[in-house]
Structures are given as structure tokens and as C-alpha cells.
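Weekly structure sync, notes
Attendees: PL (lead), two postdocs, one rotation student
Agenda item 3: pending single-chain targets
PL asked that the sequence for the first pending target be pasted directly into the notes so everyone works from the same version. It is reproduced below exactly as submitted, 164 residues in total.
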Amino acid sequence: MQIGAHSAQHRSRNMTKRPRGQGRKSRKPAKRKTRVKLLAVGHDVIDAGHETIGECCDRIAESDSGAIEAQLQRLRSLLAHHFQNEELLLKAAGSSLCGCHALDHRIMLALCDRAIRSATDGDGKSRKVIIKELVPALRKHIAYRDQLIALYLNTLDTPPVLHS
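Predicted structure, written out during the meeting:
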């Protein structure tokens, strides 16, 4: 007997391949949870608004057709409230939104309105409007507009506070 022949013979006997699909656990693909990630700008009030808006977008992405219209209405309300808070913070700091920032707000509200109309009409495009159009617009807005607001507000000697 050659050295190692016994071990090779033993391995071949014990390592027979199983036919495909036999003896293996079937794996169902895990349900992918959508997560809309929005940039934090370092201002508590603004970041809290972004977090709530992102969570609502998640619900829209995952909701069934029957629940989507209510979620869209909620998203529109959250956006309008968040935008109003930004304006109030700047006003309390003695400033105001620039024209391009305010225009972004109007565009995003219009996208939300379009998604609501789509849900009402039942054409099935409302989720796509939110995920493919509104969320990317919101991300750009946060990166290019809200970052500047947060920087400005955070560098004031006395930062403004919103009163409920």
C-alpha cells in the first residue's frame, strides 16, 4: 500500500457529492426592507424632520396599494411642516430662504401632489414618483440647500429655537 493511498480512498468514500437540491435547506430570498437614507446636516430640528420624512418614504415603498394614498397624504403634510420649520428657523435668525431653496420646496410638494393624484386615479405610478423622483430630489436638496442652512444656524451666537 502506498503512503497516503488509504487516506485518499477514505476521502473518496466519505465525500460523495449530493445531487443538487437534495439534503440542502431551501432558502427563500429575504424580504428586502427598503430604507431611504437621507443625509444628516447636523441640526437637530432639521435632521429630525428628515428622519420622519425618510421613514414615511419607507412606508410608501413597502405599503400595499390600499394604504398608499394615506401615506402619500401624510408625506405631503410632513414635507410642508418641515419646509415651514426651515422658514421659521431662518426668520427667527433674521434671514430668509433664498429663491432656489423655496423653489425646491415647491417642486417637491408638486411631486408629492402628482403622486397623490396618481394614487387617486389608480394608475399605479405614485410609488415610482416618490421613490424615483421625489427621494433623489430630496437628497440633492438636503446636500446642497439644507446643509447651508444648518451651517448658518449652527454658527450663530444664539441659535433660534422653534416653539411648539
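Discussion points:
- The longest helix spans residues 126-154.
- The chain has a mean pLDDT of 84.
Action: rotation student to compare against the earlier draft before next sync.
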